[in-house]
Amino acid sequence: MIDQISIDVVVAALLPSIDSHQKKIERAFCLGLSGLQGSGKSTWAAALAHRLTDKHNLHTRTISLDDLYLDHDDLLSLKQNNFGNKLLQARGQPGTHDEKLAQSFLTEVLAPSLGSDRRARIKWPAYDKSLNNGQGGRVPVSEWELVSLDERLDVLIFEGWCLGFQPLPEDELREKRRMSESSPPSQTQKVTERLTETLQFHDLEHLLLINASLKRYCETFMGPETFDSFVHLTTDDLSRVYCWREDQEEALRRKGKPAMAKEDVIKFVQGYMPAYELYLERLNERSLFQSSPLAVGKKHIRVVLDNNRNVVSTNVL
């Protein structure tokens, strides 16, 4: 359960930017929302959408990066064609999403309002992780929700775990990989601390491939220019990600629903850790819009969470 006061603090910070946007641009305000695994980003997105719609009369909808995955067969081919790359053996990483679908959807839904000339309805992408015996798959297009564009769409919340990540220059990535190999985790560290230092376990070429995919993503559908403001859920202890994810799985177990075993949780989160090691530092320290020439009025809001996902601090970078 998210503290409603924290939601209101974030909304209050966003409202001036939304108001300014509506006075200047005839299209929906796009709010990016990024968060670590288990941080509750989907819950935050829903809570923000509810608050903006119900209290502030700003009609808001959400879309998740998860809804833009490649379909099952395409993911299977990607996995087989990159058999030695551990980062592409499951969905999640840059490179496992349908980039054309993402770009076309966002282009259409964020197009300037043209009154009666605008398309009446748009199909809202959806992905079902329970399809194909739990391997996941795209919901048939015929079953996607049809959303009327004749009605108001004031705010679109686009959430995803790697939104806000920026690709690194190749030499910088190489240096990070080299440093991880020259300074392996110490056996005196806690297990969870050792699990946050994983770059040395991945081939450089595999990391460079993910970096190249992230570069394409930022150039086509999730670069800073896509967003009118940004909310980042983070923490001061990266090892908490493992605890957060285990908490979510435990909640599923209590409800009698399928859930990952603890060892599978560790394996799952480790798949995301290299990207955190490469890209999270910049997002934690600098505004996503710092180098953007069109950043006037855009807010980057950092929300720091504790071990129980309670909000410790909220500040605008």
Give your account of this protein's structure.
This protein is an alpha/beta fold and 317 residues long. It has one domain (4-65, 157-316): P-loop containing nucleotide triphosphate hydrolases (Rossmann fold), CATH 3.40.50. It is 40% helix and 15% strand. It has ten helices and ten strands. The strands form three sheets. A six-stranded mixed sheet has the order 2-7-1-8-9-10, covered by helices on one side. Strand 4 (127-128) and strand 5 (137-138) form a beta hairpin. The longest helix has 21 residues, at 4-24. The two termini are 26 Å apart. The model has no long low-confidence stretch (mean pLDDT 92).
Strand order of the largest sheet: 2-7-1-8-9-10
Q: For this structure, what is the CATH homologous superfamily?
A: P-loop containing nucleotide triphosphate hydrolases
Overall geometry: globular
Strand content: 15-25%
Which runs of at least 5 residues are low in confidence (pLDDT < 50)? Answer: none
What is the string of helix and strand elements?
Answer: HEHEHHEEEEEHHHEHHHEE
Total beta-strand segments: 10
**Span between termini:** 26 Å
CATH topology type = Rossmann fold
* Rounded radius of gyration (Å): 20 Å
Mean pLDDT across every amino acid position: 92
Overall SS class: alpha/beta
Give the helix tally: 10
Q: What is the level-2 CATH architecture name?
A: 3-Layer(aba) Sandwich
* Number of individual domains: 1
- Main beta sheet: strand number and arrangement? 6 strands, mixed
Keywords: Kinase, Transferase
GO molecular function, one term: kinase activity
Protein name: D-glycerate 3-kinase
